[in-house]
Specification:
The structure is a single chain. The chain is α/β, with parallel strands linked by helices. It folds into two domains: 117 residues, Rossmann fold (3-Layer(aba) Sandwich), CATH 3.40.50.720; 174 residues, Dihydrodipicolinate Reductase, domain 2. 33% of the residues lie in helices and 24% in strands. It is built from twelve helices and 14 strands. The strands form two sheets. An eight-stranded mixed sheet has the order 8-9-10-7-11-12-13-14, covered by helices on one side. Strand 11 and strand 12 form a beta hairpin. Helix 5 runs antiparallel to helix 12 and helix 9 packs across helix 12.
Length: 335
């Protein structure tokens, strides 16, 4: 069974994170796209139908799955419209600005008998897969603390108004925290408690460009996620300390850069990190002697996310990113 897919936009998200994977996947047919002005998608995918408006695309009864990859503040409106037209929906992060809006869409999806999927692709980054494997191996023993950072240096105000203007789901907290919180929630579930700090540090910024979130878990595990747009010398992205050692890893996932350079998913090098980017695992023996080793990263691929969407629609299998995960994430973002 092939499912016809419609993308609501063909910016970076549509071009890099969605179209190549739907085109590659045997269960999907990359069928249609909305392009209001410049028509670019058909140059990459000649068989695509390019609609002038979202309404035109949603009215196409042959489309079974719609990808909502429009600006953040429009997600609620476009998911609601797609569900009412009888489509399953895959939604970019953040799902909605608020918990209330998310629950309203869940209720509507249940009413019309369609499914909502959350595009949390960073669960399938090579760097995150690697630290997840180290944690699940148990060799570090009881975990004490995990720090996740996502830093950039972008002192200028960006051109995308929906990210840089004070409106629902704007600012760095709604841009990068959904990725980082989802990674934490996928590992450890809902925290016992949390606290959040926001900052505005760039000249003339209207929105937060710094956040720090501390999450407390059972057995005295503390997790922090932090991001800033004014870090000239980025720190290690993943720092994990535990009773029997530590694991430290730079943020490296090759998929985005490879796709931007024109590499195809079938290339043998796709998803493989460059040599020298391995994480460092430090273990302490019974005499407290330190032993360091390099841990090669797992190959990254977002294709399992698309497999999971297909299997949920066709075979009714559970999707790995749950509604509860998203509600927990939004509760923290909105707080």
């Amino acid at each position: 069974m092939k499912i016809n897919v419609g993308l609501l936009a063909y910016g970076m998200s549509g071009k890099i994170f969605h179209a190549p994977f739907f085109d590659k996947h045997a269960g999907f047919n990359l069928y249609a796209i909305t392009e209001r002005t410049t028509k670019k998608a058909q140059k990459d995918y000649p068989s695509l139908i390019s609609y002038d408006s979202i309404d035109e695309l949603l009215n196409d009864e042959s489309i079974g799955l719609v990808v909502v990859n429009t600006p953040n503040y429009l997600h609620y409106e476009h998911v609601e419209a797609a569900l009412k037209k009888g489509k399953h929906v895959l939604v970019e992060k953040p799902f909605t600005p608020t918990v209330k809006q998310a629950q309203e869409l869940f209720d509507l999806a249940d009413k019309v008998g369609k499914k909502i999927f959350f595009y949390q692709n960073r669960r399938w980054d090579s760097d995150f897969l690697s630290i997840k494997k180290v944690i699940e191996s148990g060799q570090l023993g009881k975990l004490n603390e995990l720090h996740i950072r996502y830093d950039r240096y972008r002192s200028a105000i960006g051109a995308k108004d929906f990210k840089e203007t004070a409106m629902p789901a704007s600012g760095l907290i709604y841009d990068l925290a959904p990725h980082m919180l989802d990674q934490v929630i996928s590992l450890f579930g809902k925290p016992l408690s949390y606290r959040k700090v926001l900052g505005k540090n760039r000249e003339n910024t209207q929105v937060d460009d710094y956040f720090f979130i501390q999450l407390s878990y059972p057995d005295d595990l503390n997790v922090t996620v932090c991001s800033s747009l004014l870090v000239a010398n980025p720190q290690k992205a993943f720092v994990l300390h535990a009773r029997q050692g530590s694991y430290i890893k730079d943020r490296v996932d090759s998929q985005e850069a490879q796709l931007q350079s024109g590499m195809k998913l079938g290339d043998p090098a796709f998803g493989i990190e460059p040599a020298g980017e391995e994480g460092v695992l430090t273990l302490m023996d019974k005499d407290d002697k330190r032993m360091d080793s390099l841990v090669p990263s797992i190959r990254g691929s977002y294709l399992p996310l698309f497999d999971a969407v297909y299997d949920s629609i066709v075979h009714d299998k559970p999707y790995p990113v749950t509604r509860e995960d998203i509600l927990t994430q939004l509760e923290i973002l909105e707080s």
